[in-house]
Write a structure and sequence with these properties.
Elements (H helix, E strand, L loop, with lengths): L10 H25 L3 H31 L10 H29 L3 E3 L6 E3 L10
Antiparallel strand pairs: 1-2
């Protein structure tokens, strides 16, 4: 055993699993914040999850897919293990892309979050929030 969760997974895989679970909980909390019309907190929560997820994908998920699945995909395409791994990669890429697109479009259209000294603030409109205003 190499991981700390008592499985044969690596330390980084175990750590990634725990971080992904925490981010899933944060996404659910973010949904409740949006339903409560606390849009600034919702935006901050979603943005933090997005930023945390990018290094986990780059450092743990992509290397695993690249080393263990993609080289053998052409020979084992019909096997469930490879199909699930590829489907997970495709769906994860789409989800992350939509999150990045959402954060970008919210920032572009004036629903801008900022954290000036007074705390989080939220603005709808075409004027971005600047610290001190």
């Amino acid at each position: 055993m190499t991981g700390f969760l008592g499985t044969w997974a690596s330390f980084s895989a175990d750590l990634n699993l725990l971080v992904q679970i925490a981010m899933g909980i944060a996404l659910v909390a973010g949904a409740f914040l949006a339903r409560a019309k606390r849009y600034a907190a919702h935006g901050a929560c979603q943005t933090v999850v997005l930023i945390l997820n990018l290094p986990m994908i780059a450092l743990v998920m992509w290397p695993s897919l690249h080393m263990r699945v993609l080289p053998k995909l052409s020979r084992h395409f019909g096997k469930r293990y490879y199909a699930i791994a590829v489907a997970h990669g495709i769906l994860g890429t789409l989800a992350e892309s939509f999150l990045i697109l959402g954060v970008f479009s919210v920032g572009s259209y004036g629903c801008v979050l900022s954290w000036p000294s007074g705390g989080w603030s939220y603005s709808q409109g075409w004027e971005p929030i600047t610290p001190g205003t």
